[in-house]
Each structure stands twice: as C-alpha cells, then as structure tokens.
Amino acid sequence: MTISKTANLVLIPAPGMGHLAPAIELAKHLVARDPRLSITVLLIKGFVPEETVESYILSLKSNSSLLNQGIGFIDIPQIDLNSARPSFLTHMNAYQPKVKEAIEGLRSAGPLPVAGLLVDMFCTSTIDVATELGLPSYVFFTSGAGLLRLFFHLHGLGVDVAQEYDVVRSPDTLLEIPGFRNPVPVKVLPGRFLSKDGQSSTFLRLADKFRQAKGILVNTCMEIDRDLIQSMSQQDIEIPPIYPVGPILNLPTEDDHGHDDDESSGKDPITRWLDDQPPRSVVFLCFGSRGTFNDTQIKEIAVGLERSGQRFLWSLRQRPGETGVPLELDDPSKVLPEGFFERTAEKGRVIGWAPQARVLAHKAVGAFVSHCGWNSTLESFWYGVPIAAWPIYAEQQLNAFVLVKELGLATEIRIDYCQDFGINMVVKAEEVEDGINKAMKETEVKKKVKEMCDKARKALEEGGSSYESIGRFIEVVFKNLP
Question: Which family is this sequence assigned to (predicted)?
C-alpha cells in the first residue's frame, strides 16, 4: 500500500562535494525510513567553482529515482557579491532573501506543509529565515562530534579565543574539554578558531546558531564518538538534542569504474593495476580535494615512500590556480626526485585525481595516508583500512588527534602539521617512511579498525544505533510540524 507524502523537509546543503554529497545521502536515508516524508533540496551555487560539483548536481537532477523517492531540487539564483574573495560565511549570509523566497514559493505552490529546515553546519544563517517564517530548524553537522564539542566548549568560555591562545608562541598549551579523554593541545585546534584576523569570533558564533536549532544531526555513530556525544547530552542543557546518524557516505556502486575506463576489461587503469597487487599490500596516499604540498615536501614524501619499500598508489596534484581548486600535474617527474619513476616502476603508481572510495574498497589496499577529512575518515572505517594521519588544514588536526590519541584507530605521521598559519613545516622523509611502515604493520590498530568497520556498518542496519537515531529524529520532525 502506498502512503501519501504528508510533510516536506527543506534541506540546505553547503556547496562543495564534502558537504553536498553527504547531505543528499542523508536525504535518501530519511525518505527511505518514512514514506510520509518528502525533501526539497535548495541548491546554492558554489563558493569555489568545482567541476565535480557541477557534474554531480546535473546527475542528481537527471536521476528520476530520486524524484520517485520524494527528493526534489530547487536552484537558488546565483548572487554577485561584488567581492573577489568574500568569506564563506559572508557568501552564505547573502543568500537569505533567496532562500526565503524559495520556501515561500514551496508553501504557496505545494499541497504539503513545510516541516522545517535541515541546514548544513555552515548554512546556519538560514536559521534566521526559519525563525522569521515560523518554522523549526535542524542542523546537519558534517564533521565528527569532536569538532562540535569543541565549538560549544570554546564558545562557552566567553573569551576571545584567538587572543587567549597562541598556537605559534605556545603550541603545547593543553585544554581540558568535556568528552575528550586526554587534554587537547592548542596546536591541533582548527586554524579558523585561532585566527588573528578577526574571523575567529565570527566563526565561533556559529555555536549560537547551533543552539537555536531543534536538533543537531551529526555524521558519526555512537560506536565512534560515544564519550563526546554523551558529554553534550548530559553536561549542557543549552545544547539541542544530538542525533548521531552516520556514517553517511556517498559510496560507489559495483559498476562505477570512474574515469578513463578500458573498454576491453570494463575497468579503469587504477583498478587494473590494483588487481595485480597482493591483498593488503598497497599504501594509498590521498589528501582530499584541496590537499597539496610545495615541491620540497613532495620530494620528501617521494624519498620516504621509496625507502619504505612498500607498494604505493599516490594521488599527487599541484597547487591551486585562480579557482582555488588543485590542478592536475602535466608532468609529475618535474617535481619528483630524479629517477624516481624508474626506481619505483615495479612498486607503485603516481596518479592525479583519485576515486578515493573505490580505491579504499579494493582488497589490495592495506593503509591510507590521509589528511583526516571527516568523509575520508568515515570511508576508512567503512572499508576497514587503517589511516596514517597527516592532517593539513581546517579541523583535520583535531580529527587526527581523536583518531590517534583518543581512539587508537590510526597511526601518526604528523598530527600537528598545519598550513593554516603559514608556518613553514616540512615532514622529513624519515617520518614519512616510519609512518607508512607503522600503518602497514601495526597489528593492534588494524584489529581496531576492522572492529570499527563492523560496528559502523551495523550502526545503520535495522536496530543499529544510527538507525534508531534517524527514527527518533523523524518522530521529532512530525511532532514539530508547524
């Protein structure tokens, strides 16, 4: 028996694949759980142009199955901010009138009541729109519970965090933060929190918006972040209910072979090369959609890789051009040590863009040198591949701290490496070699990651912790119907 849709939840993801793709996957989970619920996604143009985002959006709009499930899309007209490089939050704030106009259009045109707004963690300025229209709002927090706990803790201190803590002069200052088992060094805090340019207060005021929401959905599960989630549920009555709903991931299908397929085999060159390697023998190096290094650091990585003797697949890209997106290298040999390709021809491959999830899913991959972005972290858990942590910017240092020091689910290359402050850090070849070998050989970490793989998958199955959390959230959505 078909159940008619009775409520429409408006989803506002942030532009950028790291936020947009998990938001769409969350929408799929929600409509699959309750046939009464439909979701309308407001698509805001990207802060930084990304070809992958544009093609992804086109694929969503042409996917009739999404519409059949009750997921629709509205394009929000792009706004010219008359600024070459506005901040991300300024960019999102400017869209409030357009968002309001779209929601009013939904209310007047459709038979379904708008149940509320589910907004990305960086789109919380639209909570003001929800309040103005008399609608409840909810937040989708696309990172882990560690960053959310940090938001609330630093905001609650009532001090100018950027002035209080100086990562350059006092990097070893320790903070006691509820939910963390160990003191947290200032040097692993996100750069935006400690920026001296005045952005830190603006950034931390996002916590004000989080507190105004009726609930916060976090892309994690109790099995990963139990202590942190419980600390927010028990110790601060001003924090809205927390719903761990993850791991929410945009995973490849079995017939998704990515770019540059070989027609004779149906497989791309990367997969064909991995097929020829022994099980769990390859270390995969990939630093996310924006992770790049200078030439000095690239050479140190190359030397460390070669010395390790491990088989490797290295996603190497050059520093961004005007769009801010890393570029493909025309000739990687120009930035690598002389003779590197010849000496490692039997051991490894250097590639450009990598189909990360598909690589991690391959049986040949035994370790993952990663920037510890949250989506990448969840993918490593999902496929049971241990991480050698090498964060670069944003909240990645904190994620790495949680993985290495709090949970014992990763080995370390350099968890305090950070490009946000302009400090000229260089990780030496010896550190790269040692970190890679530990990730490939550390049996206790491998055992823990395999256990987490099983737990994370079960969390989303019927009766699992995230499955139940999604159900509780949907109940609240219908309870709070305007």
Answer: Belongs to the UDP-glycosyltransferase family.
Q: Identify whether residues 86 and 233 lie together within a single domain.
A: yes
In a domain, 259, yes or no: no
Three-class SS of 11-68: EECCCCHHHHHHHHHHHHHHHHHCCCEEEEEEECCCCCCCHHHHHHHHHHHCCHHHHH
pLDDT in tens, 221-277: 999 999 999 999 875 668 999 999 999 999 987 545 444 444 445 578 999 999 999
Count of structural domains, the chain: 2
Structure tokens that stand for 256 in this block? 């998704």
Both 44 and 180 in one domain: the answer is: yes
Give domain status of residue 257, yes or no: no
**For range 172-185, the mean pLDDT:** 94
Q: Are residues 307 and 325 in the same domain?
A: yes
Contacts made by residues 191-194, CB under 8 angstroms, sequence distance 24+: 191/167, 191/393, 191/394, 191/418, 191/420, 191/421, 192/394, 192/420, 193/150, 193/154, 193/161, 193/162, 194/161, 194/162, 194/165, 194/166, 194/167, 194/421
Position 321 pLDDT exceeds 60: no
Compute the average pLDDT of residues 67-84. 84
For residues 224 and 236, membership in a common domain is answered with yes
Structure token pair of residue 345: 């021809």
Phi, psi dihedrals of residue 151, rounded to the nearest 5°: -50, -55
Same domain membership, residue 284 and residue 221: no
Query: Residue 108 class from Cβ within 10 Å (0-12 exposed, 13-18 middle, 19+ buried)?
Result: exposed
